[in-house]
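Budget justification aside, the reviewers requested a transparent look at the raw inputs and outputs of the sequence design task funded under Objective 1. We therefore reproduce one unedited record. The lines immediately below are the structure tokens for a 113-residue chain.
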């Protein structure tokens, strides 16, 4: 009897969740956001995750922190906009780069609770 490939895929197939984070001058909270979010998703073994940060023309070290996070975590990517376009445009720009099966849009300021 032939084994059903579909049932095997269901058991081992993990979905990718994209976390989209528009950022504007988030130097004070970005590392903390990343650490807290990583801790939470670390306990969700049924899914894989990616972070997509969008630098919306920040004038502080936000972009440098994004680069730092990318260097230490392959799940992190970022988009750097040439100037501040506003949160909605930053989200739309980021959506073009998501690879996940589903997306969660979060603010970096840790007020999504």
């Amino acid at each position: 009897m032939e084994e059903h490939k579909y049932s095997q895929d269901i058991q081992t197939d993990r979905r990718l969740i994209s976390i989209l984070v528009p950022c504007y001058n988030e130097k004070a909270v970005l590392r903390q956001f990343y650490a807290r979010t990583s801790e939470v998703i670390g306990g969700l073994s049924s899914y894989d995750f990616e972070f997509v940060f969008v630098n919306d023309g920040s004038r502080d070290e936000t972009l440098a922190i994004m680069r730092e996070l990318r260097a230490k975590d392959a799940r992190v990517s970022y988009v750097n906009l040439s100037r501040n376009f506003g949160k909605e445009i930053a989200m739309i720009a980021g959506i073009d780069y998501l690879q996940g099966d589903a997306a969660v849009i979060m603010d970096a300021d840790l007020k999504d609770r």
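Strands lie at 15-23, 47-55, 76-80, 102-105. The radius of gyration is 16 Å. Computational costs for records of this kind are itemized in the attached budget.
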